[in-house]
Amino acid sequence: MSKDKHKDKDAQRMLDPLDTPISLIPGYIRDNQTTLVFHDKVIAAKEETFDVDEGETRVFRATGKPLKLKNIKRIADVNGATLFKITASYQGTLQRAFTGSNEVGEMLFRAEKKWSWGAKLQVTFADSKTGDPVTLIVKGYGLMRTAEVTLDGQVIALFTREFWSKDLLSNSKTYHLTVAAGVDLALMTALCIIFDECKFDDAKHG
Predict the structure, then answer these.
(1) Number of domains forming the structure of the chain
(2) How many C-beta atoms lie closer than 10 Å to residue 1's C-beta?
(3) Which InterPro entries match (predicted)?
(4) Domain at 71, CATH number
């Protein structure tokens, strides 16, 4: 199967909608399956920017330096308002945990990296509507070019990275994020950014 067909297959895969929607930030749930595209912009002074688009429309922007201690990545809406500030902490020599907080520092979610063949994250948060605890699993596959987000075994989102010669030459990255109906697009965007950080860790230490 060609790379184009493999990418298209992942982007067109149909995900079952959630019977009960989950969200951290109300207003970012769609009634239909949605695909977002992440465009990695030119890195200046080691700062990275992802523009996140739905079709021709900008939805989010993620900016910041690699998540070492004291560094912060911000995910903002189209108007520049911060939705999440993502920080990292170390639980051991190589294991890291990531925290997503709001502008005033209140923790909204936590993603803990687990030992696995490839990046694996356990994500916990309280649903914004019900207050019930939610646990998600993010697992990378296929030389870390793809990942699935699952809730109780159901796939609710897919990350797929393009890996073309132009990406290698320009040191840029492009991700496609497919999200099931009833799932918070802002949270899935944050998890895709964290997954990208975990891939960097695995490449550096592996």
Answers:
(1) 1
(2) 8
(3) LOR (IPR007612), LOR_sf (IPR038595), Tubby-like_C (IPR025659)
(4) 3.20.90.10
Nearest to 25 by CA among 189, 198, 194, 192: 189
* DSSP summary character for residue 134: E
For residues 190 and 24, the answer to whether their CB atoms sit within 8 Å is: no
Consecutive H or E run containing 151: strand 146-151
Average pLDDT over residues 99-115: 91
Confidence check: pLDDT of 11 > 50: yes
* Domain, as residue range, for 175: 3-205
Please tell me what DSSP assigns to residue 174. E
Q: d(Cα 158, Cα 11) in Å, to the nearest integer?
A: 8
Q: What span, in angstroms and rounded, lies between the C-alpha atoms of 180 and 143?
A: 24
pTM summary value: 0.85
Work out the number of other CB atoms within 10 angstroms of the CB of residue 49. 15
Q: Nearest CA to 77 among 45, 54, 95?
A: 54
Residue 87: HSE in the Cβ half-sphere, 13 Å Cα cutoff: 12
